From TrEMBL:
<feature type="transmembrane region" description="Helical">
    <location>
        <begin position="152"/>
        <end position="173"/>
    </location>
</feature>
<keyword id="KW-1003">Cell membrane</keyword>
<comment type="pathway">
    <text>Porphyrin-containing compound metabolism; heme O biosynthesis; heme O from protoheme: step 1/1.</text>
</comment>
<feature type="transmembrane region" description="Helical">
    <location>
        <begin position="179"/>
        <end position="199"/>
    </location>
</feature>
<feature type="transmembrane region" description="Helical">
    <location>
        <begin position="288"/>
        <end position="308"/>
    </location>
</feature>
<comment type="function">
    <text>Converts heme B (protoheme IX) to heme O by substitution of the vinyl group on carbon 2 of heme B porphyrin ring with a hydroxyethyl farnesyl side group.</text>
</comment>
<comment type="similarity">
    <text>Belongs to the UbiA prenyltransferase family. Protoheme IX farnesyltransferase subfamily.</text>
</comment>
<dbReference type="GO" id="GO:0005886">
    <property type="term" value="C:plasma membrane"/>
</dbReference>
<keyword id="KW-0808">Transferase</keyword>
<keyword id="KW-0812">Transmembrane</keyword>
<feature type="transmembrane region" description="Helical">
    <location>
        <begin position="31"/>
        <end position="50"/>
    </location>
</feature>
<feature type="transmembrane region" description="Helical">
    <location>
        <begin position="248"/>
        <end position="268"/>
    </location>
</feature>
<dbReference type="Pfam" id="PF01040">
    <property type="entry name" value="UbiA"/>
</dbReference>
<dbReference type="InterPro" id="IPR044878">
    <property type="entry name" value="UbiA_sf"/>
</dbReference>
<dbReference type="InterPro" id="IPR006369">
    <property type="entry name" value="Protohaem_IX_farnesylTrfase"/>
</dbReference>
<dbReference type="InterPro" id="IPR000537">
    <property type="entry name" value="UbiA_prenyltransferase"/>
</dbReference>
<dbReference type="GO" id="GO:0008495">
    <property type="term" value="F:protoheme IX farnesyltransferase activity"/>
</dbReference>
Amino acid sequence: MSITRDENIVEGAGLSEATPRDFFALLKPRVMSLVVFTGFVGLLLAPGSIDPFNAFVSILCIAIGAGSAGALNMWFDADIDAVMHRTANRPIPSGRVQPGEAVAFGLVMAGFSVMTLGLMINWLSAAILAFTIFYYAVLYTMWLKRSTPQNIVIGGAAGAFPPLLGWACATNTVGLEAITLFLIIFIWTPPHFWALALFKREEFDRANLPMMPNIAGEASTRRQIFAYSLLLAPLGVAPAFLGFASPVYGVFAALLGANFLRHAWAVLRMDDADRVMVPAKRLFGFSILYLFAIFAGLLVDHFAMPFYPLVGA
């Protein structure tokens, strides 16, 4: 089935009767909450200190910038959202928000967040935020998502920028530590989304999206999930080896990584005839917990490290 962009969905001339709740939904709040959290961790882990007001402005701009990218993504993807069960009730395909309103909303928020971050914090962080919005809304949404099964691999960088962005807000630099946080999310993204793509394959087929299971097949996807998981497990421990987290965090991250590998192994060993896809669903669910736990662990470790016995203050 070929999807063509419905002019009524894409252009939408009239004004809607959308509520504030509908515009809030355009921000992809669940995605935005993860972006804000990882950005916050990057900001707090950065060396030196940032005063509370500037920290608040930084996180607010990261949140608004992430929301703007979400709104622009929903505007452009309204045609495929309309044919997928899990996205059909989003504000634009359901008719609650007109496309023109969504794109204007997204662009205004993008401009506001970037300019505010530049003027009040620093221009390096503003440039990273601008590039992140462009990467997600243009490179990923408008090009990669519809053109290559590597869409998640390459496009995953957009979701990996927030901790690096938070670090830049605090220090006006980008260090090895920030790049490590970026890489954890970047390598986490393919197994996370490909697990979803395995048990949502029919929906992606209906939307004519070139997700890995639809193009390369389920067996190849399962092997790639396991390969990325092998990279992710030690990468999650890397902050302890690089010295910006303690050995206590290292043990915690190693246990999480081992559990991630256990789920990925179950996916790899899945029967080709298994249409229930329980291992893939379990990996998808655990992957969300994994990323939250890794960054929460870094945050707790940062504040608890001075109190650890045998660990310097």
